[in-house]
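Archive entry. Fields below.
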Amino acid sequence: MMSSFNEIDLDLLKRLSEADGIGGREREVSRIVTSYGRKYSDEIQYDNLGSVILKSAGKSRVNTPKIMLSSHMDEVGFMVRSITEDGYVNLLPVGGWWGHVMPAQEMTITTANSEKIIGVIGSRAPHGLPAEIKEKVIQPMDMYLDLGVNSRKSVEGLGVSIGDMITPNVLFREMNDSNYLMGKAWDDRCCVGVGLEVLKNLSESDYEADVYFAATTQEEVGIRGARTAVHTIKPDVAIALDVTTATDTPFDKKGMKLGDGVVLSVLDSLTIGNSGLVQMMEEIVQDLSLDVRYDFMTVGGTDACNIHKMMDGVVSMTLSLPTRYMHSPRLIIHREDYIQTIKLVTEFCRRLNLEKLNQLKASIGITNFRENHYLD
Amino acid sequence: MFIDMPLFDKLSEIDSVSGDEKDISLLLKSEYEALTDTIIYDNLGSIFAVKKSKKKNAPHVMIVGHMDEVGFILKKINENGTIRALALGEVKSTSLLGTSVRLKTRNNKTINGMLLAYDKTENVLDESKEVLVDFGFENKEEAIRNDLNFGDRIAFANQSGQFLNNRRLFSKNWDGRYAPLMGIEVLKAIKDHEFDFDLYIGCTVQEQVGFRGIQTATNLVKPDLGIVLDTNKAFDYQTDIKEKNGELGKGVLINFYDTTVLPNRLLLTTLKNICEENNLLHQYYYSMEGSDAAWINKLRVGTPTLFINVPIRNMNTPSSIMDIKDYGAAKSALLLFLESLTAKKIQEFKEENR
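PREDICTED_STRUCTURE:
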């Protein structure tokens, strides 16, 4: 059995984490994707919302199944909502934020000219604050960025304008046990890394299917880019790669630990994984001696939720990577989960062929493929 | 009797919790094969029998309802051998303690179980929409030895049949069996009929979890006219209702409103006129829930859509109740509607709101 894999490239993860890109402004990320992925792909396409699709052609030239791997490039962040006379910047959240994780955090404004302007989100001194104020979470819409200037004119002089993107100013860091990796935007940049590492592995192997890695846009604002990417690819099978909430901290000891291996998402609130696909992943887990957990995320969804319902349907599931502190400026993932997920996805791409695809369809009762083609 | 009872029995016996509709799909396939020469699928598992017109470029008429039922999915095996399972669909928390359920393993072995309460005050469905199931195992190892796996579906055990007076039928999954049953019966009735439209009769998957299969099915069929076969909740016996809405035994529902779709008005009038002219029992109905019809209606360039529904009691519980008279009226109305339908009329339905 074919099962050799490259070492992971930690510098790639660092670059992906530190790139700034909220929904609709994913260009810094997609440029990393194309520059890194170019030598491992046969063709690069874009959809019209900015998703970038890297194709790695399989050796089979007839009835080649198409696999779509999907990771979203956008992170949760903010836009400049307004600028006050005295030089503060009001925030407009883009994606889900909780007031608890915001005050006193450094943020970066990316200007129209791609200048980086650093500020800090204002906070209150606790001295003498009444209990009812101390106990209340400040709403994201009530917070502001302090750029350390004293007028609107100075802010504008920095090149800042309404609508500019704001993202956490956080550097990638290997933690004290270097398997623990801290950075911003792991949702979903670590999975963008998975996709690129898979393409790298595939470039050195023989496989039948055509593999399309889609780095998609605008997931955090309503799973939009996955829709347009599906129509660009028209896949037979799709694997959405996304993060799930680790529950192994003193806040929530529920058992989803960092470092315990791959996570098969049986369902989330918007998608039920194809059962044949889940079982095929289980076989690979066994054959490669990977560790496995199962995820039933009843809040939220992934790119898969729109992919599987597009056109006349796509055989789909989600593979998850657990992260701590999702939708905050600093998230922590584990190197082992990353490595194992890359192995699982690589091996899946190596194994999928027409016969396997038909088995996946048969698992939900599709036993006859006459006239079963999506035509525009 | 308006209902093919052996077929009803066969359909009721099958489990089809959302995402695991394979068994009912295979039964439908075997029934459709005798009645048509073309069967198509979307890639989530929705299935259609196709009856092509002899005319070229004929419009597409889609008659469809869902074949999935509410149930549970295995998400944890506890040390003491009990199972935690997540509800799929709107399972009613008031009907669950002591309910018989069953699980079919990957090796096709059926295991019977019962729902337990998770606390001393005897609640069954918890805040995360999970239940505790007792399959009689003494510990985790025994459950694993018996081939229980994450993702296995757990369905209400079958309890179906007729009441003493033969006028009403009970089944664990009327919502999810009405469309498969009606679809086959209609196909049989029109077997030798020629239409000037292509007819797609079939069933969709994953309705209970958010109207998913209908989206892919609509993209597959590309209908010019959609007819949805579904059940609605009867409000005709409860002590706290202000007005009756959906009475058992009062006929097919002329469903003029639900929260996700506004049925085409000319279609509604046509259905009502057919019922009046042919002395078919019928009643107006409005629904405060959503339905598959919404997606047929609004996907692609839009499709005029009509319900041919019947009321049931105890929806999404281990035993729901339907009146045969309502089923009979629905079936007659649908057949008469199809006989009167032409390509020209389909165009008129499209132009109704211009």
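CURATOR_NOTE: Chain A is about 25% helix and 25% strand.
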